[in-house]
Description:
Layout: E1 9-10, E2 19-23, E3 47-48, E4 51-52, E5 57-58, E6 68-86, E7 97-103, H1 111-115, E8 122-129, E9 135-139, E10 145-154, E11 158-159, E12 161-168, H2 172-178, E13 182-183, E14 192-196, E15 220-221, E16 231-249, E17 260-266, E18 283-290, E19 296-299, E20 308-317, E21 321-322, E22 324-331
Amino acid sequence: MPLDFTELVDLTSERLGGAVLYANDEFFAPKENLLRASTPVFIEGKYTDRGKWMDGWESRRRRTQGFDWCVIRLGLPGVVRGVLVDTSFFRGNYPEQCSIEACAVEGVPDVERLAGDEFKWTEILPPSQLQGDSRNLFPVTHGERATHLRFKIYPDGGVARLRVYGEVAPDWRRLARTGGELDLAAVENGGLVVAASDMFFGHRHNLIMPGRGLDMSDGWETRRRRGPGYDWAVIKLGTRGAIRRVEVDTAHFKGNFPESCSLEACRADGVVEDSSIPALPWKDVLARTRLQAHTRHTYEEEIQDAGAVTHVRFNIFPDGGVSRLRIYGHADRSVG
């Protein structure tokens, strides 16, 4: 069974470079709120000189036919699998419907070009009914790579947050031209953490996000284990490749870092389900190795050759938090 689309990467995430580039109207609340990482809030009695303060994007009341709209640049190009249109706290002022169009554009076009008629936009979500003060979920089956979206609301109103979930689709021709090693697990290269034993304190996707962790919340952290065993996360690499170097960063984890870690890898075609993970042909890549607090650990001589692989299983003993995991290697150019 495919992953629930909300378990995929939010392609519009600000931390990945997502941005609302243009809105035809943002009279009551600015377009930038639409992609904020924070959960929407409502502050009773808070007003601006234009009306009630709202944590979202809100246009004025339309007195003519038409719709309001904005243009969004995806943080990473990808294939959209589903969207969340969050109308939290918009009760008497939410749009009746919404729709989404997508296009794939090379380079970094300016706002005027994107807002004009130069590019071909394809509808990936037809006009769909919205509920107020709700998390409205819509699957998308378009299946083509996109770099920008046009989000339309009918006829006007406010939306608190927009999340666009999908699969990152890197430009492998460009990556091939750079040569050398790649972080095969990085989200920007198409990596995805498909499963984890636990993520009580920190989401598994944080492991492969760009840059170093900002604080302890910006990592993968499990609850305290009170019985035998260990915690683990399985990462689908962006492309099949041979692992040459591994980096485990425990930045900000000082009293709750794992005692040790290990890494296994396998070549698995198709979808990896939770039930199939133990039976996969895992090979040792990094033997169990002690970790230190708040430290970037690099392993190269310790790496065992597992051949060209598609997935890795990162094990932490017995529990704890890790900020980032980097899997450096050479892509197998016989694929994709």
